[in-house]
Amino acid sequence: MMKWILPLGMCYVVTNVVATTLSVAILQPFVSSMFGLYIRTDADGLAFAPLLIGYLVITIALVWLMPRVKSGRSGRLHGAVVGLVLGTAVFLGDHLVTAGWSKLPALPMLLSGLVDALAVVAGGIVVAVVQQRQIGKGVTRA
Prior knowledge:
4 helices, single chain
């Protein structure tokens, strides 16, 4: 059980903090205006439950995938590679599919998807480090 709790908790926190930071530092000042009338306003607020549950789903996938995927890399670089693959598949794929069937513009959706994927890269690095330390302490097997 411990092999899941620590990486899940740490990855979840890091992924959410990085995603929020990237949103405030990059997406809001540089990409939001590209959405025109389709952007959510501050008055609209966020739907926190689906947002947090969505990040939990991504975190569970990342913790489960990390020891099972062979990237040809080790340690932090392995975490970054697995995080990049999962992050771009989830965010870039979702954002572009959404742009395809909605009226949302494709370019800001593409940029948003790429930036959002970076949070999963950070989470992947955290999971790789935690799981590597757990293996060293005998908490889990490789």
